């Protein structure tokens, strides 16, 4: 399998960096081909602005969506963006690795998504009609590929539990898993999360490293998060509302977008904890 690991941490000697090395070594030991986009080391430009679209006339109003669409269609994207798109097309598996900063990914990784996910490539594709609403959420240019997150955080696992003060980790990661990875078609595996990393001793690190090795060994067999497919019949088109007969009466939240949530009555956190426990 071909694996692209996009790494977003400014210190290669960090625990995050050590876990990256563990993941790469195990992937290569399993016979996978690995490429790495090290965003900080490569000096990735996170801001999307006019410089991304050199063919845009200086007197033309800058509308990022329109500029992205035209640049993708005409092959006028900048070379750094083209390179990353080629990597995504090459890879069977995408791994985004980052520390959880202020409940999300570092700005440099968000900027990678904003610049690389060009209109016509990652979004804005497919027909819009009374039967379909574009190729997204389970369909799209990256359908048939897998993706997952490797995340480190200084907080306790209990703080990110279903009743934890920070909110369930799966709810916090939902915008990334569902909105960034599943949106263009990836089958999204449960995330690997390492907690309390600032206080890990050597023994604690080895436990985390072994968990990560096991996840790398099972990339091809781990069941993905069972998100509902947009055009699979669960959503009304064009309102994109979940059909009223699906889900527990009165229920709201991210768990509604999981297949089987209407029967199981599970929260997204409960479901993911079960999945990850089975994958460890």
Form type: globular
The main β sheet shows up as:
6 strands, parallel
Counting DSSP E segments of at least 2 residues, the number of strands comes to 8
Distance N to C terminus: 21 Å
Stretches where pLDDT falls below 50 for ≥5 residues?
264-280
* DSSP helical segment count: 8
Give the structural class.
Answer: alpha/beta
Radius of gyration: 19 Å
The sequence of SSEs as H and E is EHEHHEHEHEEHEEHH
Overall mean pLDDT stands at 91
Our estimate of the beta-strand percent is: 5-15%
Helix content: 25-40%
Written description of the protein model:
The protein has 280 residues and is an alpha/beta fold. It contains 8 helices and 8 strands. A hairpin with a 4-residue loop joins β7 (235-236) and β8. The longest helix has 16 residues, at 202-217. It is globular and about 55 Å long. 36% of the residues are buried.
């Amino acid at each position: 399998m071909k694996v692209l690991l996009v790494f977003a941490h400014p210190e290669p000697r960090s625990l995050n960096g050590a876990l990256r090395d563990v993941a790469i070594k195990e992937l290569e030991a399993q016979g996978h081909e690995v490429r790495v986009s090290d965003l900080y080391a490569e000096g990735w430009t996170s801001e999307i602005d006019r410089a991304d679209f050199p063919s845009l006339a200086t007197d033309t109003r800058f509308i990022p969506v329109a500029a992205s669409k035209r640049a993708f269609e005409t092959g006028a994207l900048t070379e750094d963006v083209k390179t990353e798109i080629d990597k995504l097309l090459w890879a069977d598996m995408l791994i985004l690795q980052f520390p959880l900063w202020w409940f999300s990914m570092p700005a440099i990784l968000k900027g990678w998504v904003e610049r690389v996910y060009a209109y016509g490539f990652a979004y804005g594709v497919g027909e819009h009609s009374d039967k379909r609403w574009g190729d997204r959420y389970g369909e799209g240019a990256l359908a048939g590929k897998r993706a997952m997150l490797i995340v480190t955080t200084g907080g306790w696992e209990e703080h990110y539990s279903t009743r934890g003060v920070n909110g369930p980790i799966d709810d916090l990661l939902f915008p990334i898993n569902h909105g960034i990875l599943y949106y263009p078609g990836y089958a999204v595996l449960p995330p690997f999360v390492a907690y309390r990393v600032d206080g890990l001793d050597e023994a604690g690190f080895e436990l985390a490293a072994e968990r990560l090795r096991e996840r790398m060994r099972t990339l091809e067999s781990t069941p993905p998060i069972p998100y509902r497919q947009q055009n699979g019949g669960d959503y009304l088109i064009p309102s994109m509302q979940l059909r009223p007969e699906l889900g527990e009466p009165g229920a709201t939240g991210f768990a509604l977008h999981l297949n089987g949530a209407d029967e199981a009555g599970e929260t997204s956190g409960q479901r993911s904890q079960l999945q990850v426990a089975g994958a460890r």
